[in-house]
Amino acid sequence: MNSLFPKTLIPSTSLSSSTRLTLTPNSLRHFKLHLPRLMSSDSSHRLFQLKLDPLTGNSEWVVIEDNDDLPDCSKEPLLATTSYLDMLNDSFRNKAFRSGIERTVTKPRHVLDIGAGTGLLSMMAARAMGLNGTVTACESYLPMAKLMRKVLHRNSMGKAISLINKRSDELEVGVDIPSRADVLVSEILDSELLGEGLIPTLQHAHDKLLVENPLTVPFRAVTYGQLVESTYLWKLHDLSGIEAKVSDGIHLVPTGSDSIIHVKSRQYPMHCDAIREEIKPVQVQVIDDGNIHAVVSWWVLQLDREGTVFYSTAPRWINSPANIGYRDWCDHWKQCVWFFRGKGMSVSQGEEVLLEATHTETSVSYNLNVQVPKTDTRQHDHNIRDFQLLLSPERIAIYGDSKWRSSVLAAVRNALQGRVNPLCVVVDDSIFLTLLAANLSKTSHVLSLFPGLREKGAQYLENVVKANSFSMDRVEVREKRKPCLTLHDTHGKKVDMLIGEPYYYANEGMLPWQNLRFWKDRTLLDPILSEDALIMPCKGILKACAMSLPDLWSSRCCLGDVEGFAHSIVNTTLGACGELPAPKEGPFLPFSIWQCGEIKELSEIFTILEFDFSKPISSCHGTAQVVHAMDLFYGWIGLWIQIILLSYQLDQSIDIGSKGLSF
């Protein structure tokens, strides 16, 4: 099974067989991640954005400055890793909204555009009215509003469209807008349909901002679903069933406590076409024997009232009507997967299955009901308290991977050989390593930091201690978060083993080098390490491969004309690839390769940098030459970090990124 760890991709336009690649971070301490969580201040109308330092786990709110006088080199690329560019490259979506607007806005009216983005829908509405009506565009995110002003100016639409930098629920008729609007155009949709606050936003608009019975584009949306059997999806959520096939003596999910580790009950956006050959549909009126593992859902937009213009996010195995058709590959709207807990629900031909779907203002959930045979006598360990640890599907799949477990187990067993009463510090959030260290050595003392899991990690260990044959007397979880451990925390004893996967609960989905938090933590703990302390992993190797990803390229390529409106001005800001002027470069993007559409390797795998975890953190410099690369018309550079567990066992290594590039 291919790992779901994200691999970083860099768009490349001119790579040849002799091109040298250089990556020189001045200091690994300066990496920061910008998360799309926003907070506004009503008193000053300032916008704040949450920033996370992946090397410390610390986060802070920072002010987004409204300063156009700053040079471009000093501005941080707040929009380069968003989905705006992908949406604007979705020609099927653009044509559908254009047609829907032109069929709906047939005479001068007052049009309200909520979540205006670059202003594409606003400009479509203004053009449909011959620039004679009124268009009010609402865009709350300051960097996007500033970019929209540039797009409007480039298209001579600045006077035709009134842009307001506020949330729609902050608008007031008579204050911000002259009157209630006759038409609403909006695209506040996500892969689940409701996740961006569609319902409360539209409800407020109908109550406060729109006339009675307004026209809307889109007109309505319908969600569809299919019950499926899929071994691949099963491995993403049923750790208990997978672990039953692994005979390594470690029980992350003890018998009878299947729900102690599971994924959060929610829909997970996913490109399901990537596992099309592995999917087996299960009808609600069951037509074949099988196991229901998940619901795959998608939605269809009806853009106009008459029902002639549609947009669908359906996977390609669904036979969509001719008037809906199939869109090109895009990443901004995917299908969604809802996992059913456990091994799946076994069904027989002719059996009726009741699928219940409910929704809140922001999410859709599913429940599957079928008559349970009276002979079901599953045994449960009633000594295990009602505790649940929620992990991501990717983490569940990794913990169920027998090859991964075997490599880690062998490395820890070898590391413990010859050590008497060792103090072993698990520096990350690895429950697996904690269980391993305690299980494999009956004399070890294990101190787990669990910086992300914290008390949840401690509660989990208390629930599985019996099944894993060790005593909590030898396992300690640091309860309070401190900048660094001291000898006081280790009861005066220096650390003999410092280990990690590395896995940090809050760092999933980040760029590969942002997982170097382990190196940072190892450096901070250097004063309390014994002279012969073993560091595992001992090394990280940043590897790369030139790749052709035409689908991803098409979704990230430079814009020119979008439905008659010039958009080249947004290319640099949105991180487009392909035609940016020097020295502009595309952004680093974390992606799971198997979710990137068509894939082709164009070079051998090569090494760029090596990180020596046995020594404190330091600046790194590396140069690599790509050998025998093919044409890179759709070229990207895929990067991932290979983790070497022990220096004398190079065969025991883990790739943070992928276990190979052949998909």
Q: What is this structure, in a nutshell?
A:
With 663 residues, the chain is of the alpha/beta class. The protein has four domains: 7-27 and 540-656, Hnrnp arginine n-methyltransferase1, CATH 2.70.160.11; 32-78, no CATH class; 222-390, Hnrnp arginine n-methyltransferase1; 421-539, Vaccinia Virus protein VP39 (Rossmann fold, 3-Layer(aba) Sandwich). The chain contains 13 helices and 36 strands.
Could you name the CATH topology of the largest domain?
Hnrnp arginine n-methyltransferase1
CATH architecture descriptor name of the largest domain: Distorted Sandwich
Shape: globular
How would you sum up the major sheet? Answer: 7 strands, antiparallel
InterPro entries: Arg_MeTrfase (IPR025799), PRMT_dom (IPR055135), SAM-dependent_MTases_sf (IPR029063)
Protein name: Protein arginine N-methyltransferase domain-containing protein
Keywords: Methyltransferase, Repeat, S-adenosyl-L-methionine, Transferase
GO molecular function: histone methyltransferase activity; protein-arginine N-methyltransferase activity
Keywords:
663 residues; alpha/beta; Hnrnp arginine n-methyltransferase1; 4 domains; 7-stranded antiparallel sheet; 6-stranded antiparallel sheet; 13 helices; globular; disordered C terminus
List the helices and strands and how they pair.
Layout: E1 7-11, E2 20-23, E3 33-41, E4 46-52, E5 59-64, H1 84-88, H2 91-104, E6 110-114, H3 120-128, E7 134-138, H4 142-154, E8 161-164, E9 181-186, H5 198-209, E10 210-217, E11 220-229, H6 231-235, H7 239-243, E12 261-262, E13 268-270, E14 280-282, E15 290-292, E16 294-302, E17 310-312, E18 335-339, E19 345-347, E20 354-359, E21 364-369, E22 389-390, H8 393-399, H9 402-416, E23 423-426, H10 431-440, E24 445-448, H11 455-464, E25 475-477, E26 495-499, H12 517-524, E27 529-536, E28 539-548, H13 550-556, E29 561-562, E30 565-566, E31 589-591, E32 600-601, E33 606-612, E34 622-625, E35 635-646, E36 649-656
Parallel strand pairs: 6-7, 6-9, 7-8, 9-10, 12-22, 23-24, 23-26, 24-25, 26-27
Antiparallel strand pairs: 1-31, 1-35, 2-34, 3-4, 4-5, 11-14, 11-16, 13-18, 15-19, 16-17, 16-18, 20-21, 28-32, 28-33, 28-35, 29-30, 35-36
Helix pairs in contact: 2-3, 9-10
